[in-house]
Structure formats: C-alpha cells, structure tokens
Amino acid sequence: MRKIFNVLILILFLIAFIKVYNVQAKKSFFCKGLHYTGKGMQTGYERGLMKITKIPYYKLTCKKCHVKNCDVCHAKKEGKIWKYSVFEAKKNKTCVKCHRRAKVAALLAKKQGIKDVHFSKGIMCGDCHRGSDVHGKGISYKSMLEPGAVEASCSQCHTEVQLERVSAHKVHKGKLDCLACHVANSIACLNCHFNYRAHKKGNFFPYLNFLLLVNHNGKVTAGTAMTIVYNGKKFIVYAPYFTHVITKGRSCKDCHGNEAVKLITQGKKVPMFTYKKGKAKTWKGVVPVVKGKLEWIYLDKKSVKGPWIPLNTTPTSVQWWYCKPLTKEQLKKLSMRHDNIN
Q1: CA 96, 98, 99 angle in degrees (round to 5)?
Q2: Which terminal residue of the chain has fewer beta carbons within 10 Å of its beta carbon, N or C?
Q3: CA 103 to chain centre
Q4: Tell me, what DSSP letter sits at residue 91?
C-alpha cells in the first residue's frame, strides 16, 4: 500500500513538474521576441547615441512602447466586453500605434500621391509578418536587422520563376536587394533635437524625398539616415530600412549616372539637408552612401519653441548600423549610364 502511495506521489510530482516546465518554456519563448524585449532600439542606442548623451536606456521613454502582454495587440472591445482577437492584431492600425515611423511614411506618401502597391490592394501588415516575426521564435536577437530575426520577404509571394522573367533582376546578378528598386523613397527623421525629446512636434523634420543605397548582408539595399542634435553635439546613424511604400521598379537612369552620382564622382558632396532663410530642404532622388560625400546641416535651438540656429563645424559622430557605405567599385558601376532595360 505504501509503495502504491509513493508511486502516486511521484506521478503527481512529475505532472506538476511538466506543467511548470511547459509554462516556463512558453514564457521564455515569447519573452525572447523583439516586441517584448525591445532590444533592437536599446542595442542601437547604446552602441551609438548614448556615447554622446550618457543617458542610460532605462531612463528613456522608448521602452514603454514595447509589448509586455498579448492584450496590447489582441484585445478588441465589443460593447462593454473586451475579447481576444487574432484579426485585430493583424490590422495596420494596431501596428502603427507603436511603429509610428511607418505611419508618418504613409501620410507623407499620401500627400505626394504615392500609392503602396500592397496597402492599396488591402494587404495588411499581418499578411506578410506572420507568427514568428511578431512573437519571436525563442531566439534572442539584438536587432530586427540580424539575419533570421524577420522572416517576411518578397519571395513569400513572388516566386523565383516570376522574378527571373524581369531582365533587371538578371542584370544585377543577385547583388541588388528588391527594396533598392521598389521602395519609392525612404522615410527619414532629420535633426531630431534630443534635448527636447518629450516635445516631438516642431523638434524634428520628417521627409520622404530620397532613398539611400547601402550595403547590407551582401547586397545593395534601401537605407535611411537619422540626424540628431544633443547639447550642441552632432550625430548621424545610417541603416538599412524598409519603408512600406512599394511601387513599380525604378528605371536604370534613376540610379546610374544620376545627379548625386555625378557630384560624388566629381569629388563634390551631395547637399542632403539644407537650411536657408528659415526654410529646410532635402535632396530628392536616389543617393549612394559614400563615406564623407553626403552633407547634412545640423540645427540647434535654445528652447522648445525657439528658432533653429545652424551649428558650427563641430565633428559629427557617425554610426553604421548593420550597413556599410558603397565601395569605389560599386560607385564606378553606378557612374556608368545604362539604357532602360525594363
């Protein structure tokens, strides 16, 4: 009898252990996802801007945006009752509550009459970014730009057979990412005044006027830049970026031998961001990122609502976030004019 009792106790213990283990396993699975950890922003900040600000990440409000429970995305109110909804989590409006840069890009694109081919067809964020992109897959990533962190790709819908029919795809021999040709322009937030980060309106310039070309994971892809001012110090970060404004592919002349390429090959700089007589202006079009060849004006102000004052020629701290500038050989190829092969 005693043996039977001991066996029952052992069985109950094993059942309890398995349940606890499963709960912990599930918890660790979701808690490693970037939406939960917020490691992408934290790592980028700590390796770049924090060297200037000296403010620890935990003291910033950035981390408040990151998802700590399922309700943030899945909760849907029906009458007075909150219910769990998978469809609610897939809606674009759910995503842009936190992904505000994507929202600003969509608004600027609408003003310019640019239609994203996917959104205009009713495709939602969740149609491409499926479970593992949203919830993670039990692997700790430091950024969504790490290989494997995001699985959404053009090839999910556009097969290799379809892609090979386009001559431009063959010419570039797999060295050009889809985004370099099909993203209309990159969203760029310029001259963010970090001293007044609690007052965003009027303290930075959002633009959708140009697209930068950078090297990332062995291919030339779409990139962006973010310029920041803090206590009179200048900072810029270059990074690959997928602005969700997808259109028909560019023509050859949009990149090869364009005005920006001409300036760079002549030893001049491309005036990416200028400020004259109280008016800010950006370059328009495709620009290859070549070290030291892109010129950005930095502006300071003495108060939240004060006027912008151009900063002097103090050194600029530069961060290359998961990207590298184009090489001399790549620039040489861009300087060659090509007939339109589309």
Answers
A1: 55
A2: N
A3: 12
A4: S
Give the pLDDT confidence score for residue 167 in this predicted structure: 78
Tokens for 299?
């502006």
Tell the residue number behind the tokens 């600003």, with chain if given: 104
The pair of structure tokens assigned to 236 is 């810029």
pTM metric for this prediction:
0.87
Per-residue DSSP letters for 210-260?
A: EEEEEEETTEEEEEEEEEEEETTEEEEEEEE---S-B-SPPPGGGTTT-HH
Q: Which residues pair with 139 in a beta bridge?
A: none
Q: Which one, of 182, 259, 197, lies nearest residue 60 by Cα? A: 197
What does each C-alpha distance from 98 to 69, 101, 134, 207, 338 come to in angstroms? 14, 9, 13, 19, 41
Q: For 302-334, what is each residue's pLDDT tens digit?
A: 887 888 989 987 899 999 999 999 999 999 999
Q: Six-digit token pair at 275?
A: 């400020």
Average pLDDT in the 178-205 region?
85
CB 318 within 8 A of CB 247: no
Interval 65-82: pLDDT, tens: 677 788 889 989 888 888
Instruction: Tell me how far apart the alpha carbons of residues 295 and 75 are, in angstroms, rounded to a whole number.
Output: 46
Scored b (16 or more CB within 10 A) or e, 211-233 reads bbbbbbeebbbbbbbbbbbbeeb
Helix (H, G, I), strand (E, B) or coil at 298: coil
User: What amino acid is encoded at 329 in this protein?
Assistant: E
- Tokens read off for 169: 């795809």
Q: Which of 61, 62, 52, 56 is nearest to 230 (CA)?
A: 52
Side chain identity at residue 63, one-letter code:
K
312 φψ region: left (φ > 0), alpha (ψ -120 to 50), beta (else) = beta
